[in-house]
Amino acid sequence: MRPVPALATLPLLALLAACETPQAPTPPAPPTPPAADPAAVALQARAASLFQALPAQPVAGSNELSAARVELGKTLFFETRMSKNQELSCNSCHSLDKYGVDGKPTSTGFKGQLGGRNSPTVYNASLHLAQFWDGRAPDVEAQAKGPILNPIEMAMPDDAHVVTVLKSIPGYAPLFAAAFPGQADPISYDNMATAIGAFERSLLTPAPFDRYLGGDLSALSPEQQVGLATFMDTGCTTCHAGVTVGGQMYQKIGLVKPYDTTDMGRFDITHEESDKMVFKVPSLRNIDHTAPYFHDGKVATLDQAILLMADHQLGKQLEPAQVAQITTFLGSLTGPLPTQAIAPPTLPESGPDTPKADPT
Ligand code: HEC
Ligand code: HEC
Fold first, then answer.
1. Contact status, residue 156 vs residue 86, Cβ threshold 8 Å
2. Quick one: residue 355, left, alpha or beta (phi over 0 = left, psi -120 to 50 = alpha)?
3. Among 251, 239, 255, which residue's Cα sits nearest to residue 275?
4. DSSP secondary structure string, 164-195?
5. Contact 102, 227 (CB under 8 A)
6. Do 205 and 124 meet the contact criterion of CB atoms below 8 Å apart?
């Protein structure tokens, strides 16, 4: 047993000082919270079994995330010299200050050409099971290689030309070296896409619904909680569930009642008969800011999208009051934009050998 030091061996002054130190007053006991309404608790538990809150940190997936890589990716996201006419960047069709969309039914690309599909948001997209309406790219890194070479989007002739352009801009060499340390030749088409992917993985928008899923019942207004119940009771969660409230499976548009479209969706990728008109179920995060809706961008308002969904996917006719309830709930999926992180970067200056814009 260790000997207990005799009181007399303690310095007397210190002891006196300790006695005189005013003690912090004991904080008053917190008021007992009002007993939570059991129905509200049950609703939250039901929601927590269907949805997950956004992760606190970006998920790296196949990537290795570093501040240098994310910063390079952000610069490249705004880089117009990776387009043939040097007028288009990723941000042209996925405006980060407009919730990651262009607000058009279908996007305008090189020489004003119209694409066939609506531009989906890049916010939270890294958490989807795959990228594009038809899921043809497995992740955001693979996806980023597409639009630059797409003749009706950024229209660059080939990946070698993109690398030539990036190497001709002196300011990119140190940025790529910092983002891909230890590599002999870091400016490559793959690394360009990997850096953009790293940036996109950082684009998460935590919303009141995430706080609610985390146990803060007051994060959703009573009206939003009514809407949540309607959303679940109607059956929307058969398809729109998980961390991005959608984005986790493929489903046919017009499952119960045919939807008028000539777009074959996933069939064009898999050539399976059962994949005709099958699309990735879109995420509903920030949905009240990403009109117009559906792959063809033909649906102008969220109310109309909800009405059509109930009809075509579930064979249900919703009352206007139910549509309003669901719209109100969906508002709780909107998080503030990370304005600091997305402020447009200063693009490095062109060098003497940087190719000129080719508008032809
Ligand atoms: C001319 C407009 C345009 C440009 C420029 C453009 N995109 Fe897109 N983007 C689209 C459209 C349209 C789609 C949907 C196409 C499809 O699904 O077939 C899309 C899809 C995506 C998706 C998939 C999101 C999801 O939920 O499936 C991501 C991620 C994305 N783009 C990122 C980028 C990046 C990164 C760049 C720059 C390298 C870029 N886009 C350039 C229009 C554009
Ligand atoms: C059987 C699966 C399924 C069910 C059930 C379902 N959806 Fe969808 N939802 C989809 C698919 C697939 C799309 C994409 C359709 C397209 O663009 O062709 C979609 C698209 C949407 C969109 C447009 C998203 C965008 O970015 O364009 C909204 C809004 C939506 N659904 C809300 C709902 C609501 C509300 C319910 C319940 C009334 C519901 N959905 C039920 C599969 C489903």
1. no
2. beta
3. 251
4. HHHHHSTTHHHHHHHHSTT-SS---HHHHHHH
5. no
6. yes
Of 236, 250, 197, the closest CA to residue 70 belongs to 197
Q: Is the CB of 312 under 6 A from ligand 2?
A: no
The domains of the chain, with CATH numbers, are 67-204 (1.10.760.10), 206-333 (1.10.760.10)
Quote the Cα angle for 29-35-38, to 5°: 155
How many helices (DSSP H) and strands (DSSP E) are in the chain? 15, 2
Q: Which amino acid is at 8?
A: A
* Helix H or strand E segment including 141: helix 140-143
Maximum alpha-carbon separation in the chain: 94
- How far is residue 258's CA from residue 41's CA, in Å, rounded to a whole number? 38
- 153 classed as catalytic: yes
Q: What is the pLDDT of residues 227-282, one digit of tens each?
A: 999 999 999 999 999 999 999 999 999 999 999 999 999 999 999 999 999 999 99
pLDDT at 11 over 50: no
For residue 232, report the distance from its CA to the centre of ligand 2, in Å.
13
162 lines ligand 1 (CB under 6 A): no
**CB 146 near ligand 1, within 6 Å:** no
Q: What's the 10 CA to ligand 2 centre distance in angstroms?
A: 74
- Ligand 1 contact via 88 beta carbon (within 6 Å): yes
Please determine, for residue 138, whether its predicted confidence score (pLDDT) is greater than 90: yes
Q: What DSSP string describes 194-211?
A: HHHHHHHHT-----HHHH
pTM summary value: 0.92
